[in-house]
Structures are given as C-alpha cells and as structure tokens.
Amino acid sequence: MSSGRSEGPTVAIVGATGAVGSVMIEIMNARETVPWGEIKLIASPRSAGKRIDVRGVEHTVVALSPEAFDDVDIAMFDVPDELSARWAPVAVERGAVAVDNSGAFRMDPEVPLVVPEVNAHRVSERPKGIIANPNCTTLSMMAALGELHREFGLRELVVSSYQAASGSGQEGIDRLRAEIEAVAGKQVGDRAGDVAEALVAAGLSEETPFKAPLALNVVPWCGSRKEDGWTSEELKVRNESRKILGIPDLKVSATCVRVPVVTTHSLAVHATFDREVSVAQAHRVFEGASSVVLRDDPDGPDFPTPAGVVGGEPTYVGRVRQAVDFPNTLDFFVCGDNLRKGAALNTYEIAETLASEG
C-alpha cells in the first residue's frame, strides 16, 4: 500500500496509545488514501517517545502540551472527559479544530454533535472551534435512524440497548474475561449468589464496573445514577438523539443493559414516524444507505449479532417489522462496533469531512 499522503492539513491524534486511539490508527492504515499532509501522535508524558507505524512511516509519540498543537489543523481527542475539557480549548487557541470523542462537550449548545451521515453540515457551525462525537450507544443506531427520519419524519423512539463490556473501557473487558474464566467448566447454579460465590472463590473482588456479576447474566444498569432512577447512558440516548437529528421535542425512552459481550453494542429500536412506513420501504431506505448493511431474512434466518459484525465499520440492521398495534411504527434490531463506528471511526469521519471542506 502506498502512503497515500497529500499536501493536506496536519491532523493530530490525542490519546494515540489508548484503546480508541489505537483503533483510529488501524482505520487510518486501512484507508487507500488519506487527506493528511502530516500526522502527529500525542499522548501522556509516560507514553512520549514510543514509536508507532502509521501508513508505513514510523512516528514518535509526543507528550501532551500546548506546544504539541503548534501547526496542527485538526486535533482528534480520544481521552477522558476531564482531559478533553482542559486540552481541547488549548488546541483551539493554538489554531486547531478539536474533534472530541469524550462527553465533555456533547450537550454544549455551542458545540455541534455530529454524525456525518446525518448532519455533516453542522461541522461548519462551531463557535468554540470544537466538534463533539456522540456516545457509542447513540451512534450505533443513528445512521439507520437518520435515513428513516429523512424519509418519514421521526416522532417517538423507545430503545433497549444491549451494551458490551468494552463500553466500560479496558477495565470492563478485563473483568468480563476474568469472570468467564472463573465460571467456565464449573457447575454454577442459576442464582446470582452462585455466580458471586464462584467469582469470590476465583479471587475476584466484589468490586465491579457492572454493579453485579456479568458472566451468565445481564445487568440493567449502564453509567451513573441520575434523577428519577434514570442512568447517564439512558439520558445520553435521549438528549443526543434530539440534538443530532435536530428534533428538540423528540419523545425518547431508553433502557440500557450491560450484556456479557466483549465488543459491539446492540439495540432494539421501536420508532414511530409522522408518515406511514412499511417494511419494504424501510428495506429500500437501508439498502440505499452507504453506511448501513441490511441483514434481514427471517426465513434464513439472517440477522446481525455482535459476534457476527465486530470489527466492521457499517451499522448492521435486521429483524425489521411493522408494529401492528402501533400506527406508523417500525421495530428493528441494530448492531454496531462500539470501538470503531461508535468511537474512533465517527471521530475520524468528522475530521475527513472537515478536511474535504478545507
């Protein structure tokens, strides 16, 4: 593969050695061509000096500092909220546009929340010089919903998410794998206490990012507790969907569930529209969308699953049904890799959109 480099803008990956930053580099390496004149890798001081191959060229990671953003045109941030909140404005002060993958700026009214397939025009509306990337759960359904909204006008949305352990970061991945190892091959009973006893016997702490054992279980809790019993993940689905689609009064109800899957979020979507919509019409819309893959053969049966789509870049849709008891309503199932499209890829595609607009 040729380097594919051009005399284009300079792009920086902030958090280049982290989980999402590493996926960002994989995406960049897989592209036939890229619009970047220069690529800069930025990380914490402890990662400074590491050498990473990007498109056949070895790059040295530099420490996060104000000077690291000199001559950078677009800075993609893949770091925790508190770091983005501190450093994205610094990048802007140094002349860069910041594309942030954290939750620090998503609901700021002066920061556009962008999914290029849905609202690419918003990248030019950035009074703070910052563009936000949505939460990976919202992103998993947004390409499909955006296409349907354009055709039929979305009015109400009820969502149940089935979120992978990687949504809790490396800690979540490590914990799930340790729990699976602890119960594998054991005669574990059906009660929650039986699994908990097996985990304690394996030397695993009762402290877990999932609030309850995840192996052989599902946990109806993702994120932190918010008002009236909702969780932060559930409110993100509501608030971010409204902002991305430009429907401030969209009725949304979400229940977010953690499931024993390493990577790829799934969602069961119940969507009501202003106009009548059939399964055949929805199929045509999905088939015409470049970033949506339709897998919907009930006789096959063929439908998306996390294990079947992990590592893929599109949104995968199946189980499309017309809700007989609910007018103008569709039910369907969506899967999307939460580390690729749900984080790294969408951030990268926002940066590509910026580059294409000069």
From TrEMBL:
Catalytic activity, EC = 1.2.1.11
The residues the record assigns to binding phosphate are: R106
User: Could you say which residues bind substrate here?
Assistant: Q163, R258
Alphabetical keyword list: Amino-acid biosynthesis, Diaminopimelate biosynthesis, Lysine biosynthesis, Methionine biosynthesis, NADP, Oxidoreductase, Threonine biosynthesis
Enzymatic class: oxidoreductase
Alphabetically, the GO molecular function entries are: aspartate-semialdehyde dehydrogenase activity; NAD binding; NADP binding; protein dimerization activity
Q: Which residues form the active site?
A: C136, H265
Which regions span the lipid bilayer? none
Name the InterPro entries for this protein: Asp_semialdehyde_DH, Asp_semialdehyde_DH_beta, NAD(P)-bd_dom_sf, Semialdehyde_DH_NAD-bd, Semialdhyde_DH_dimer_dom
Q: Does the keyword Amino-acid biosynthesis apply?
A: yes
Describe which pathway this protein belongs to, using the record's wording.
Answer: Amino-acid biosynthesis; L-lysine biosynthesis via DAP pathway; (S)-tetrahydrodipicolinate from L-aspartate: step 2/4; Amino-acid biosynthesis; L-methionine biosynthesis via de novo pathway; L-homoserine from L-aspartate: step 2/3; Amino-acid biosynthesis; L-threonine biosynthesis; L-threonine from L-aspartate: step 2/5
Q: Which reaction does it catalyse?
A: L-aspartate 4-semialdehyde + phosphate + NADP(+) = 4-phospho-L-aspartate + NADPH + H(+)
Task: Enumerate the residues binding NADP(+).
Answer: T17, G18, A19, V20, R46, S47, S166, G167, N338
Keyword set includes Oxidoreductase: yes
Every copy of the Semialdehyde dehydrogenase NAD-binding domain together lies at 10-126
Which GO annotations describe the biological process of this protein? 'de novo' L-methionine biosynthetic process; diaminopimelate biosynthetic process; isoleucine biosynthetic process; lysine biosynthetic process via diaminopimelate; threonine biosynthetic process
Q: Which family does it belong to?
A: Belongs to the aspartate-semialdehyde dehydrogenase family.
Subunit details: Homodimer.
**Entry function:** Catalyzes the NADPH-dependent formation of L-aspartate-semialdehyde (L-ASA) by the reductive dephosphorylation of L-aspartyl-4-phosphate.
Q: What is this protein called?
A: Aspartate-semialdehyde dehydrogenase
Q: Which organism is it from?
A: Actinopolyspora xinjiangensis
What's the gene? asd
